[in-house]
TrEMBL record:
Gene3D superfamilies: P-loop containing nucleotide triphosphate hydrolases. InterPro entries: AAA+_ATPase, ABC_transporter-like_ATP-bd, ABC_Transporter_VariousFunc, P-loop_NTPase. The keyword Transport applies. Residues 9-255 form the ABC transporter domain. Pfam families: ABC_tran (PF00005). This is ABC-2 type transport system ATP-binding protein. SMART domains: AAA (SM00382). GO terms for molecular function: ATP binding; ATP hydrolysis activity. Keywords: ATP-binding, Nucleotide-binding, Transport. Transmembrane segments: none annotated.
Length: 270
């Protein structure tokens, strides 16, 4: 992508290999393999088959996981900050804390295990990250995401659409510069889908939003599309340009065309 942009995230040679024991042997799965790409302000939707590495990429970008190799660089108007194994050792902890506060993350989790209530959890998070007037902000988010009726519910009791709305609310508490969403519509109810759509439509001009999804309706909100396969970036570009090349002009049609192309490529023998 061009260098005229003022805010962007750049992944350089990011690699993550999962090693695990199975039947008394060590096995390895590729999470990401030498992944390099960059995205700028706007909404980037990441598509790819199951196991392509979407969640791994999002976890690393949300600073929930360190890459084995490579780095993620966050460029804002004023600063450039790196997330890499080397940087964890080299940085002052407050620098990484400052970067963490700029990131809102919606993980793909079936449930939470905390006993804290919805109201207290949102207030605590707002306070912990130094939000001005944490009481007001946490109440605003509770009302905005239709959680007022669940204010006294412990997080561990939240399920389905309500859990997802809580995760969305907490991810937006700090007005994130980088908003990272893993399958946000999976399990989300109608109210949540409507609120998510509204949030995406009025997102601040500078915000970098990255969404991994299999939901082709949601994918239509993209400014940019990324296709991830086997831990690497296969395609990245403006949605308008990529979908203009397929007859229906939709993301679903483009994705299908890319999959057919992939299958043909892998069956082609030299
Ligand atoms: N904790 C783990 N231990 C071992 N392997 C893992 C672990 N987490 C992910 N993997 C493997 O890493 C690869 C990438 O997984 P990842 O969850 O990032 O893919 P994904 O594109 O998000 O898949 P999906 O669309 O199914 O959510 C897969 O082969 C997966 O099985």
């Amino acid at each position: 992508m061009g260098k005229t942009m003022t805010m962007w995230i750049e992944w350089s040679h990011v690699t993550k290999i999962y090693e695990f024991e199975t039947e008394n042997k060590w096995a390895r799965n590729i999470g990401l393999l030498d992944f390099s790409a960059s995205v700028q302000s706007g909404i980037t939707v990441i598509l790819g088959p199951r196991g392509a590495g979407k969640s791994t990429l999002l976890k690393i970008t949300a600073m929930m996981m360190l890459p084995d190799d490579g780095r993620v660089t966050f460029h804002t108007h004023h600063q450039t900050m790196d997330w890499s194994t080397g940087n964890v050792h080299a940085s002052r902890p407050e620098q990484l804390g400052e970067l963490r506060r700029k990131i809102g993350y919606v993980p793909l989790v079936p449930r939470l295990d905390q006993e804290m209530t919805v109201e207290l959890a949102l207030f605590h998070l707002a306070q912990l990250y130094g939000t001005p007037d944490p009481r007001k902000r946490s109440c605003e988010m509770m009302i905005r995401w239709g959680l007022a009726g669940y204010r006294q519910t412990p997080l561990m009791k939240l399920r389905g659409g309500v859990l997802k709305r809580f995760l969305l609310a907490q991810s937006l508490l700090l007005h994130p510069t980088f908003w990272i969403l893993d399958e946000p519509t999976r399990g989300l109810d109608l109210l949540g889908k409507q609120l998510l759509r509204e949030e995406l439509q009025r997102q601040p001009k500078d915000r970098i939003t990255i969404i991994a999804t299999h939901d082709m309706q949601l994918a239509e909100c993209a400014d940019y599309l990324m296709l991830l396969e086997s831990g690497a970036c296969r395609r990245l570009g403006k949605k308008k340009l990529l979908t203009a090349g397929v007859s229906e002009g939709t993301v679903a049609a483009w994705y299908q065309a890319m999959q057919v192309f992939s299958k043909e490529k892998s069956s082609f023998k030299v």
